[in-house]
Amino acid sequence: MSEHLSPVTVNNMACRDNSTRCMILCEHCNENFPDEKMECLLDVLQLTCLKDFNTDMNHSDTDWCNWEKVRGLYSDLSICTEKASDCLSITYPNPLVEKIFLDIHSQYFQDCPSEELSDPPPPIVFALVITPICLIPVMVSLVVLKTKNGDGST
To answer: What is its membrane topology (predicted)?
Structure first.
């Protein structure tokens, strides 16, 4: 049976459930950040999720731009931030977590090429540009020929 029963209050802090992990986080917040849930969340994330992520990324000899190699670390970070927010009864995602992920992207992934946003190869660009240019005179010629022959209905 799960430890998750129902929301509990530890001193003044509403804790999502009475699991050991949540109770530890809520007690930490009550002792160090009474009435400051977001500051406590930042502290918790820095001490747990971000510390683990940064350690793993800096000790990893993998290419940070290779998604297959960093996906697990990134997923672990996402799950950790969500669980911490949930334990402290803070909606997820929230502006603090979004800022943390933006900071991570600028620190680790800023120089990674984004293939989804890159320009297509020149032959494809040429084909996409020249096709409508060629079609316009053909369409105008067809309209003129049809109206000259009396086939057009007006």
So the answer is: Single-pass type I membrane protein
Question: Tens-digit pLDDT profile for the chain (154 aa)?
Answer: 344 444 555 455 568 878 898 999 989 999 998 888 899 999 999 999 999 999 988 887 778 888 888 899 999 999 999 999 999 989 998 999 999 999 999 998 888 876 666 677 889 988 989 998 989 999 999 999 988 876 555 5
Residue 123's domain comprises: 119-148
Give the pTM. Answer: 0.65
CATH number of the structural domain spanning residue 48:
1.10.150.510
Q: Are residues 92 and 132 in the same domain?
A: no
- Domain assignment present for residue 154? The answer is no
